[in-house]
Design a protein that fits this description.
binds adenosine-5'-diphosphate; eight-stranded antiparallel beta sheet; 16 helices
Length: 475
């Protein structure tokens, strides 16, 4: 058993705040690293102590393993929590931590490596009898090979980067004519983003849902925490997540969870992780797509329906503790939904909107949780991800959590920069969303409608008027 008294937090933003909170409750000291652009950030304010690790550019700070390790050694940390993004799924970094006698809060480096390569992960899942999307067994080395596989499985196909993440290095091709360009674009993007241009081919299943299973393993035992439906996406990036999924039945849930647990158990998984599937409602069939070996952005949705603090459990497991929760003790209560609030402009192709926040009024009240690192007077730097907050709503049923989310989005007031709050508001009142009848293409297909609504800001004006009225209308 390893004693963890002091954790270095090798990430930034809301997840850094989230980890600090977990550490404080566990009586663990925190060291927050920061780049020159994050000197005045909330995690720096909240941590027990902080240390500058380099200039604003992530490549010279949050992605610089040597800077993080020396910060940890200088400050005498016992462990490093990587959060998500940056080096969270970098096996070499996890190994480097071990070499310096620092506990990496995540799974074993070999498991990160295995799952980080989506082709080897696919192979393993296939070997365990978990359904896979039809596609290539091995990387495709050139366009000719991709073409042969596409003809065999049938168009449309999706070219995917083996090292992929965040929806990058992925291109759809609908016919022979499109495959060359798709191959070149996917490969070029993968080289820039991951330094690895290996691609594989999958059948592109158009209108599907993204459903994922949260797991927690201690190296021996694995438990699951049900699913999250993350089908509300734009450019393969999640915008809204909810649990339980409005689309799957108890039978499918059980089969999916069983597949996720079997995969995690097979590799002796030790940490929090997520096994991702796509689900085809037309055939009632699900397919494995990948496993993420880290805590995910959307983990609060699961925390709200199960009452389990996943980050605290993740830290406990890293000390060598066994799981304290048995599968039969995990109870699911009500419904939760999360909206990712980004500083970007939905009317202008979602261009990031960094800048100074002049007003920041955060929602609250029954069933609402807000995870954010922003505050009034904070400047959102232009160097990183544009997500500034997550609003999570819980209700006894989906209807109640949606009503609470709408109320929370109305309460959330941010001035000084443009956000996607109005976009979320129009999404949440769309009848198809209300009915739970949506898929991963839904946002892209309805985009012009949402953008038009955002432009009109109908609700905003109504809300502003209503809230400023001195008298209520006669009844
Ligand atoms: P990343 O690791 O970049 O997030 P994923 O493999 O998790 O990539 O896929 C991201 C999203 O792309 C999924 O949530 C889904 O919307 C879509 N997707 C992935 N594979 C397929 C497929 N074979 N058919 C249809 N959509 C897919």
């Amino acid at each position: 058993m390893k004693m963890i008294r002091r954790i270095l937090i090798a990430t930034r933003g809301e997840i850094a705040v989230r980890i600090i909170r977990a550490c404080q409750e566990l009586g663990i000291e925190t060291i927050q690293v920061y780049s020159e652009a994050d000197r005045n950030s909330l995690p720096v304010e909240l941590a027990s102590c902080s240390i500058c690790i380099g200039p604003a550019r992530a490549a010279e700070s949050y992605l610089k393993a040597s800077a993080l390790i020396s910060a940890a050694l200088t400050k005498k940390a016992d462990a490093i929590h990587p959060g998500y993004g940056f080096l969270a799924e970098n096996a070499e970094f996890a190994e480097l931590c071990r070499q310096h006698n620092l506990c990496f809060i995540g799974p074993q480096p070999d498991v990160i490596r295995l799952m980080g390569d989506k082709i080897t992960a696919r192979k393993l899942a296939g070997k365990l009898g978990i359904p896979l999307v039809p596609g290539s067994k091995d990387p495709v080395s050139d366009v000719g090979e991709a073409l042969a596989i596409a003809r065999e499985i049938g168009y449309p196909v999706l070219l995917k980067a083996a090292a992929g993440g965040g929806g990058r290095g992925m291109r759809v091709a609908s016919n022979d004519g499109e495959i060359k360009r798709a191959f070149e674009n996917a490969q070029a993007e993968a080289v820039v983003a991951f330094g690895d241009g290996s691609l594989y081919v999958e059948k592109y299943l158009g209108e599907v849902r993204h459903v994922e299973i949260q797991v927690l393993g201690d190296g021996n035992e694995v438990v699951h925490f049900g699913e999250r439906d993350c089908s509300i996406q734009r450019r393969h990036q999640k915008l809204i997540e909810e649990s339980p999924s409005p689309a799957i039945t108890g039978d499918i849930r059980a089969l999916m969870a069983d597949a996720a647990v079997r995969l995690a158990r097979h590799v002796g998984y030790q940490s929090a992780g997520t096994v991702e599937f796509i689900f085809d409602e037309k055939t009632n069939q699900f397919y494995f797509i990948e496993m993420n070996t880290r805590i995910q952005v959307e983990h609060p949705v699961t925390e709200m329906v199960t009452g389990v603090d996943l980050v605290k459990e993740q830290i406990r497991i890293a000390t060598g503790e066994s799981l304290r929760i048995r599968q039969e003790d995990i109870k699911f209560k009500g419904h939760a939904i999360e909206c990712r609030i980004n500083a970007d402009d939905p009317e202008n192709n979602f261009i990031p909107q960094p800048g100074f926040i002049t007003r920041y009024i955060v929602p609250g009240g029954p069933g609402i949780r807000v995870d954010t690192h922003a505050y009034q007077g904070y400047t959102v730097p232009r160097y990183y991800d544009s997500m500034i907050a997550k609003v999570i709503a819980w209700g006894r049923c989906r209807e109640e959590s949606l009503a609470r989310m709408r109320r929370a989005l109305d309460e959330f007031k941010i001035s000084g920069l443009t956000t996607n709050i109005d976009f979320h508001r129009s999404l949440l009142k769309h009848q198809r969303f209300i009915d739970g009848n949506y898929h991963t293409q839904f946002v892209e297909k309805q985009l012009p409608r949402f953008q038009k609504e955002v432009a009109r800001k109908v609700d905003n004006i109504l809300f502003a008027k209503k809230s400023r009225q001195d008298t209520l209308p006669a009844r």
